[in-house]
Please model this.
Amino acid sequence: MIDSNIKKANILIVDDQPANIAILEGFLEMQGYENVASTLDPRDVLQLFATFEPDLILLDLMMPYLTGFEVMEQLKPLIPEGTFLPILVLTADATADAKQKALSGGASDFLTKPFDLTEVGLRIHNLLYTNMLQKQLLNQNQILEGKVKERTNELELTNQELILARDKAMSLDKLKTSFIQNISHEIRTPLNGILGFGGLLADPDYSVEERQEFIDMLKASSERLMNTVTDYMDISLIVSNLIQINKKPFDAYLVLENLHYKFQPKCQEKGLELVLRTPDQIESLAINNDQELFTKIFTHLLDNAVKFTKQGQISFGFEPKGDFIEFFIIDSGIGISSEAHERVFEMFMQEDSSTTRGHEGSGLGLSISHGFLKLMGGNIRLESEKNKGTTIILNLPVNADQPLIEHPKNGHRKPNDNPLVLIAEDDDSNRIFFELVLKQHNAQLLMAENGQEAVELAKANPEIDVILMDLKMPVMDGQTATKLIRQFNPDVPIIAVTAYTMDNEYIRTNQEGFSAFLAKPTGKNELLRSLQKFGLLNSQS
Model:
């Protein structure tokens, strides 16, 4: 009831940058807030205060005509005495002077740009929650003032409930602060590596060998940042109930083999043995479920196993169990104490949730895995003892309409080592990246800067082996271009190259005609693996 009332609160955004307003409006809509108004002109605030009656104002400081400080000064005499109008300042001015001036001038909270949307959401919720409690308290006191003598017992009970609510709110706020500190750490740390080593690469005094080390560190920091952002996007989709399951048959054995290949170098670096354990004579495992979520779950769990294991072995695999498949990941790592078994599945949690914990990571891996498995119709459980390793067991149902065990067909398609690839991409940097990688692997290339050019090139070159199709392009978008190409070439593989991975429904409901999709940012290995799935480019080339 409390949360549903908060979602109905009136939120006013005041910012002179349309892009900032668009980001905040989209985020608030995704969070379920129903009443949001905005203005680019701070001179409109007084009129909107009277007509819209905001419960919360998101206010920029540096704006034309009026600064945020001046807006707060104009609002002061209009706010009734004894009432609370929370103002959350969102500004690029990170100076202590600006913060002190804003907080002393009427702001309730202060965040600097670029801001983390998760933190913004938590602070908005807290301010609205406090505002609602304030209104409840005022209304309650107005009622009780006339009946204080005859309703003393009722008043005491109400006060006790308010105290409990206040204590609960303070406890939640303390926990959220710890979460936000962890989030900030996991974003700022790799950013520091990216900016630091990126700057060193421009210094001509360093040797080629040193520059290569800088590139390796920059790549590692970029991957860590990308993984962190992906985790936050995934958990927000789970919490917001926005994930759509895309069930279709896939070979889970092949996914596990690929993950074994991916994690082998990390284990070798730490001196760990990585073992894939499967029943004898089983060379493939067909299940009907969401391959993308399945892969993400095992990636998170294997990453945790490597992270928390200093020596020994990590083994993973599966065992058929009648109507379901039991998957497992077993490590000889540090283990988890029994009192923490349930807590590690909560968001932002490792066993040690303090800011001084000794392992990097958002603390979302197990909660994301748990959320994905529920959506897939499965479950997860944990067996662990401190300093004696951990076993994670996953159960997924078997679809009776799909064969459980399959053996690979004899013979393999010979890879085409000199394919003709059509790249439909309007962004120069992405187009140049694809061109450099594919030319290095002897591919022939055709370039299109929009969907219309892609259709014309595909019609003029029916021998094209594969098309890399960006979704968002000028003149004609990738979806429309794909539908037109399918009219005269229904068989050519078309890979959607997109940055829309946060909205799974967008991809899946627009996937008609696409053979696969590749998420931006795209690495060299991901690009090559996508083409190799269609028998293009020998992996050794």
About this structure: The CA atoms of residues 106 and 488 lie 64 Å apart. Confidence is low (pLDDT under 50) at residues 350-358, 402-414, 502-507.
